[in-house]
Structures are given as structure tokens and as C-alpha cells.
From TrEMBL, chain A:
GO terms for molecular function: electron transfer activity; metal ion binding; oxidoreductase activity, acting on diphenols and related substances as donors, oxygen as acceptor. Belongs to the cytochrome ubiquinol oxidase subunit 2 family. One of its GO terms (biological process) is aerobic electron transport chain. Keywords: Cell membrane, Electron transport, Heme, Iron, Membrane, Metal-binding, Transmembrane, Transmembrane helix, Transport. It is a multi-pass membrane protein. This is Cytochrome d ubiquinol oxidase subunit II. The gene is cydB. It is found in: Cell membrane. It comes from the Bacteria. GO terms for cellular component: cytochrome complex; plasma membrane. The chain crosses the membrane at residues 9-25, 77-98, 119-141, 161-182, 203-231, 264-283, 290-315, 335-357.
UniProtKB/TrEMBL annotation, chain B:
The lineage of its organism: Bacteria, Pseudomonadati, Pseudomonadota, Betaproteobacteria, Nitrosomonadales. It comes from Parasulfuritortus cantonensis. One of its GO terms (molecular function) is metal ion binding. The keyword Electron transport applies. Its main location: membrane. GO terms for cellular component: cytochrome complex; plasma membrane. It is a multi-pass membrane protein. This is Cytochrome bd-I ubiquinol oxidase subunit CydA.
Amino acid sequence: MLDYETLKIIWWLLVGVLLLGFAVMDGHDMGVGTLLPFVGKNDVERRVIINTVGPHWDGNQVWFITGGGAIFAAWPLVYATAFSGFYWAMLAVLWALFFRPVGFDYRSKVADPRWRTAWDWGLFVGGAVPALIFGVAFGNLLQGVPFHFEDNLMPVYTGSFWALLNPFALLAGVVSLAMLTCHGAHYLMIRTEGAVYERAKAAALIFGLVMLAGFAAAGVWVTLGISGYVITSAVDPSALPNPLDKTVEVQAGAWLANFAAHPLLWLVPGAGFLGGLFGLVMARADKPVFAFVGSAVAELGIIGTAGVAMFPFVMPSSSDPRSSLTAWDSVSSHLTLDIMFWAALIFTPIVISYTGWAYKKMAGKVTTAYIQANDHSAY
Amino acid sequence: MIDSSVVDLSRLQFAATAFYHFLFVPLTLGLSFLLAIMETTYVMTGKEVYRDMTKFWGKLFGINFALGVTTGITMEFQFGTNWAYYSHYVGDIFGAPLAIEGLMAFFLESTFIGLFFFGWDKLSKRQHLVITYLTAIGSNLSAVWILIANGWMQNPVGSEFSWVTMRMEMSSFWDLLFNPAAQAKFVHTVSAGYVTGSLFVLGISSWYLLKGRDIEFAKRSFRIAAAFGFASALSVIVLGDESGYAVTEHQQTKLAAMEGMWKTEAAPAGFTLFAIPDDDKRENSAEIKVPYLLGLIATRSADKVLPGIDQLEKHAAERIARGALAVTALEQLRAKTGNEATRALFEANKDDLGYGLLLKKYTADVSQATPEMVLQAARDAIPKVAPMFWTFRLMVALGFLFLVLFALSFWYSAKNTFHEKRWLLQWAVWFIPLPWIASEMGWFVAEYGRQPWTIYGVLPTHLSTSTLSAGSLYGSLSGFMFFYTGLLVVELFLMFKYARLGPSSLGVGRYHFETAQA
């Protein structure tokens, strides 16, 4: 069995991998959903767009579900505190996600144009709302969230839903929405042609720029205006987890401390900018596969930047800093982390290989001719 | 202390959304294997009608599956949103099977379901068949992990409480995996799914036969459903008995409530066929009893005594008294005011910690609990009898009716005269909704019968929720009612539309509405 400290670090990385898997896989079809009503101007075009992700959206969505399950298993206190604290935000995500499975499967089963238009907007909501709220959630994590623990470790959230919608968090939401939409636009460029392709390309450029500008603005904002958190008591990473066993202080500039201590970490935000720029250039040059890789790297950089800035904090508490949840003290037991590590190590590569096979089998452009020929079976 | 209306509303929301989710799960479990059987026949015989069958029943499968996925996400979210203390207290054990379910099963099912629908022209016949099997295996593997998680709630093996982290922690993954409660539950639940899938195909095929259209298509579908359904209906009963035996072993309070056993009887106890249980008077009226039967079934012996509610309450009261010591010692340890003696006291009584927590419903400081509180908490330890007694009997009666229907269907399909037996076909049509009722009753018995616990003997339900306001709960409940009603209307509309259209919906030009128009 690996030692406890190593496993805690591995699980911080693995949660990152799952978030990234979510952003790269589920993220692109959320982006496609967001773009659907704008990039598709008539029914056949919209069916083309939907059918680019038709065979894959369901498998991709499991990145999201597994991510949730992994946080439950590896960081139960984070799962409990974040999901109950962000109650209305979580329900908004959940209810928005309702529109996806039914939107994809039911939309083209009835010919009435009002029915179809309604589901198109449902797919828009199911793509855009979660993308926005995930960013808003990260924006709030970076600022700290008002919660504390009772003596029996019952988490108590003392903020309101509306307080989550503060200016910095909304900026983070815009970055997240633009990031996934840009990524989805690159995917659409790979799988379509003609008018849909051209509109997807225009969207890729717009959202790519918004993503880069928003990421830069958020970086400046964190540097100048957002205080970070620091553990001020002695840290024993291999200790049994108890979040109340430490003291924490709020300090200006603390979110830059990890970068200052390990300058190599600047590569992470660097990847965000370079990946995004590469995506822009490649989209302009009509090389959508490279553009897709670029936006995936940008996602790695942007999500990674938030994670690295906060490490070891995961969910800092603004109202009772010592209740803050960190990668050291919000985790599962040694045995559970070990078992889950092996499960992830074995199954993640298997999942990635058969997903790759599925994409390979379904590769190629989705055309209007394909939709007309498969009127009864296509989405 | 958590506001009791928040506890009640959280329970209501969980029960409503879980029941709703399980409207879609059994059909997925059963129909996925029926699709695999149909497609296997297609690949082996090369007859196109079997491919059409796979595609058509697959279409109905897809309509159902979409809502299964939609409502499944709610279940995963809800532990965190509404049961935060539960998630913290047992996430170390309970989270693991959920995460592995995602990695091992749900990815498999969801990735290949896409290829099932979209891959007919892009995959070879054999590749597509493998895909269909992998989808079916994925959905059934999903059930394995979910029922391992649920089995642990019923019979929490392989775990131990840690006062430092203030939660249950895993001590043996293998015990969790091979929990007898989970094994019995899994086989019983999936065979109930197979019965549901078979009756769905049997009933709709019968309707086509009664209407006299797409006869060949319907007859072949009927035969497959009759054979698979007969085997499943048999196993759901046999394996249900196994699941019941696991209850006898691990959850005597559930058994006592299910059977309305107010008083302990000499072994072997009689089985109450019919009675009107009264939870206030604590007795049954109008009892019809079969002597010895319950003792023989439940203990598989003639001399083991089954404790009645009277004995179980006494036993619970003793555990509550010891548990109160454990709770008090734990609070001192947490506040760092305890010493070695406190620790020893805690260790000596920690097996009854959960029972001590039952008192938290009545007092924050359990060391001050009065004998009345202990008595009340001991009474809480037994679920209400009347609802358990009735739902269990309804489920069992339906199970036997399914067996009769499938036995006759199988018999007449072996003699190849089923399509002439209009009474049988009509019976099958009318029975289409009943497997869902039986499944929901089964879950009611399992989950209501676990009360007052979320984790049996470990964590009381009233301590498991999040610190939300009743207003938030009313809001979210209304939201769920709004969305779920709308989704159900849409789903049923499409299901009826496509079931009525039948294989003509495939647009291959061979079926009733297409040839009639031509």
C-alpha cells in the first residue's frame, strides 16, 4: 500500500484528471449544445450538429458522473460541504442537465417544428448553464466560501445563493463558458462542413478570444485584489484527517505563493494561454484537429492554474478559516484512497481506449445527406 | 438538532426521486438482455426480422433509457445536497462503490449505447452484437455496484468507527464486496428487471396480435419474452426468498415489521397470510395464520426462535443505554476533555454508538436522557408495521401472478397456440404496468423497513441530512415535481406513440402502416 501522504497528493491530481476529462469530453458536447441554436439555422443543420455528438454525449457525460462519485469517495467532506452549501447552484446544474438526455433522444422523434425548437433551447440550457455555474463555483472557491463545521463535523453553509453571483465569480463563469464553447466549436469544425463549419469557425474565434481575455483579467484580479489562505499551524500530511485541527490565515497574495516557491509552475497558466492561442491560430488556419488539441491544453492550463494557486486548499472557508478543506484533511481513509487509486489506475486507461475506438468507428463528417438518408434512426 | 420538518422533507424528496428513478431502471436491465438475445438470433440465423426486432425494441429502450440517465444524476447529487452528514459520516465506504460503478460499469454502458443506436452501418454484424452485449453487461454491472452500496446500508460490514475523524471507515473492501445482503439483493433486483423487460415485450406483442398486425414480428417477440420471462419470474421468487433470508440474519426489526410479529412466538413461528395490523394498539386483527410456515422459511430450521417486536424493543433499549455512554464519551474525546478512562468507556460501548445517537432526536445531551426518552427511542427502532406488512404481501402476490402468466405463455408458445388464446394476450396487455408496482413495493419494503436508520444500526436517519432550511426543501421539492411530471408526460407520450406505430416506425417499408398505405 502506498503511504498516506503520497496517496493524498495522487488524489488531488486524480480529481484534477477527472475534471480535465470532464472538460475535454463532456465539455465539448456542452459547447456544441450551447452553440446549437446559433450555429444551426434550420432543422437539417441542427440535426447535423446534434448528430456530431449523438453517439458520444452519453459516454462523455459519465466523466461528470464519475468525477462526482470520485469526489464522494476520495474527498467526502468536500462532496458533503460543497453540494449542500451550493444547494441552489447544484440544483440549477442538475435541472439544466435534465434537458440533455431527453433533448438528444426525443427531439427528432416528433416532426412538429415547435417541439424541435423547444428541445434545441433545452440543449442550449443543458450546455450553457452547467458550464457557467462550474466557473462560478471555482470563482467562489478562490475567494473562500462562508461555512464552518459543528463539533460533530456537520457542515453548515452560512451564505446565500445570490452571494455566489459576485463579480469575480461571474468573470470565472464567463471564462468557463467561453472555454467549453470554444472547445465545442473546434469539435464542430472537425465533424461538419459548409455553412455550419463556417459559423462554428467564427464562434471558435470569438469564444477563444473571450476565454483568453477573461483568463488574463482573472489572473490580474487574483494578483491585485483577492487574498489567499495559508495554513499557519504545523502541517503533517500523513495525519488522520480532521479539518478542525489546524489554524488558517487570510493573506494578500497567498494564491501566488506556490508559483513563487516553484517557478516551474508558471508553465501551468502558460499552457492556458499558449493552448488557447494555438487553438485560435489553428482554427483560423482551418486545422480543426489541432485547434481541438489547443483548446484541450487551454483547459488543462486554466483548471490547473486554479488548482495550483490554491493547493493544498480545496475549499477555503471565509467565515471560519480553520474549517477550510484541504487536500490533507478532507480526504478518505488510507485504505479507501488506496483501493480507489488502483480502481482508477486500472479502469481509466480501459475507458479511454474504448472511447477512442468508439470515436474512430464513428469518425468523419456528418452531412445533410446523412441526415436525410437516416431520417428514422438519426437524432 | 436538525429541524424535524427538514428531515421529513428530505426523506420525502429522496423517496420520491428514487421511486421515480426506479421507474426506468428495471426496463433498462431487462430489455438490454432481450435486445442481446434478439440480435444473437439475427446474427445466427441472418433473418432480417430479428434485426428489425432489435432495432424496434431498441427504440423503446432508448426512450426509457434517456430518463433513466436523467434521473440517475439526481440520485448521485442528492447524497451531497440533502444528506451532507450522511455523506461525511459514511462516504469513506459508501462513496467507493459509487465511484467504481462510474468507472467500471456506467462508462461501458453509456459509451456503447451510442454505438448500439448509431453503429448499425459502421460496424460489422459481430462487432455490433458485441456492443449490444457490452451495453447489457454494463447496465447489469451498474446494478452490482449500486446494490453493494445499498447492501452496505442494510448490513454495514467491513467498517469501523473512528473517533478522530468522526466517521465510519472501511476496514475490509472484500467484506463490503461480498456482503451477503448485497449479493442477495443484486440477483433479486436484476431478475425483477428481467421480468419487467419480458412483460413489456410480451404485453406489447400481445397487443399487436390482438390487433392482428405485424403478426410474424409480434409472435417472434412474444416467444422470446415468454421464455426469458418464465426463467426470470422463477428466479425472482427463489432469489427473493434468499434476500428474505438475508433480512432474517441481519435485520430482525425489518422482518418483525413485515410479518406483523408483535409478540415472540415459540419456534417455528406461523406465517400471517392476512391480518389488519394496528400500529397504535400494537396488535393484529382478523388474522389468518398458517402454522409453522414463517419459522421454516425465515430461519430454515424448526427450532430457531424469531424475536417479535416486544423482544426487539427490549433489546434496543439495552443497546440505547450502552450507546448513550458511548455518545457521551465520544463528545468528551472530541472536545479533548476526556482521559484514558473516557477512551476505555468509549471503546467498550462503541458497537452501540448508533443506538445512543437515536436519543439525539429527543435531547442534545444524551447523558441526561430520561427513561421515557429511552423507551421512545426503542420504539423508534422498529419500523411501522402496517405499511411494511401490506407492501410486502402485494409484492409477493404480484410475483406469483407473473409466474403464472409466464408459465402459461411459455407453455402455449411451446405448443405454438398462444396467438389463438385471446384471453392470454389480453391478460398480458393488462399486466404491463404491474412489474413496476412490484419493484417499487420491493424498494419500499427494503428502505422503509430500514428505518429509523440510513445505515442500519449505525447512523439514524434524523441525523443524516444537510443543514438546510425547510423553505429550501419546499422549493426543491416543487422543482422536482414540476420537472419530473413534465418529463413523465413527454416520456409516456413518446412511448405510446412508438409502441402504437410498432415496427413501422423503423421506416424499412415492410410493416403494417407502410404496407397498408402502399
